[in-house]
Specification:
Structural class: mainly alpha
Number of strands: 0
Shape: flat
Largest sheet: none
Length: 265
């Protein structure tokens, strides 16, 4: 299955564009009337509205009212454009000052900031960043987020792994929440309406005696959430368990209880 991923183009050219490294040789030809930031704003707007598949060099050029070949004088292709879009989104993220607060509060703030990023730019959650765009936005984000784990007795590799563990949960949640939104839009029904429409058939074909545990638990969850899946409950429950898991690691390094008011800061 094809997926979008960062750093899929020319890494050297991406890094030059990310850090705005001037070209070695002066450019010949007409004066450029656009700039990279304008191109990024249009491409990001398309992705936010219509999804990443809508971001093609031709479509961006049309929005900018330039010929497609003109756009290539600013960015080599969609792969490099995606790197720039991600890094610009990272650079715009609000970053709360949580210094002096307990580590669970700090990591919760990091999770909330990334959740807000994916809500503003749903396409970003679908991009694989196993090779991240190492631009100024990415580096500022990484530096900020690591401070939430500094001073907890973790070594550098553990700090990086703990942050990855947290952000992987946030990204997975964002993808599931986006899928739930898409299902509501595609069916033109909310969860309650969908279950009301399908419940009569399920009652005919589903024998609860054959699946007693599934029937009991599914009914309890559906009643509690009004749906088979609640993004809000999944977020609260999942984030709590992620932090509990990290608390076990922190406790093993510090000998303190990470869930109490005496936790390390």
């Amino acid at each position: 299955m094809a997926i979008d991923r960062s750093s899929a183009g020319d890494p050297a050219r991406s890094l030059e564009l990310l850090w705005r490294v001037p070209a070695d040789a002066p450019r010949r030809g007409p004066q450029q009337r656009l700039d990279i930031d304008t191109v990024l704003a249009v491409a990001t707007g398309l992705a936010d509205t219509d999804g990443l598949e809508a971001v093609t060099m031709r479509r961006v050029a049309q929005q900018l009212k330039v010929a497609p070949m003109t756009l290539y004088t600013y960015v080599p292709g969609k792969a490099e454009l995606l790197d720039l879009m991600l890094d610009a989104a990272y650079a715009r993220m609000p970053r709360a000052d949580t210094s002096g607060r307990p580590w669970r509060d700090r990591l919760t703030a990091v999770a909330d900031e990334n959740k807000a990023l994916f809500e503003a730019h749903p396409w970003a959650a679908a991009v694989s960043t196993s090779r991240p765009p190492l631009g100024p936005g990415m580096m500022a984000k990484y530096e900020h987020e690591l401070t939430a784990l500094d001073g907890l007795g973790l070594d550098d590799v553990e700090m990086d792994a703990a942050l990855t563990y947290l952000l992987t949960f946030v990204q997975a949640h964002a993808r599931s929440a986006a899928e739930a939104r898409a299902a509501r839009q595609d069916s033109a029904m909310d969860e309650e309406q969908w279950w009301a429409a399908n419940a009569p058939l399920l009652e005919k074909v589903l024998d609860p005696r054959a699946y007693p545990t599934a029937a009991r638990v599914g009914t309890a969850a559906g009643t509690a959430h009004g749906a088979a899946y609640s993004p809000e409950h999944a977020w609260e429950f999942g984030l709590g368990r992620v932090l509990d898991g990290l608390a076990a690691l922190v406790d093993s390094r510090t000998g303190t209880t990470g869930t109490t008011g005496t936790e390390p800061r």
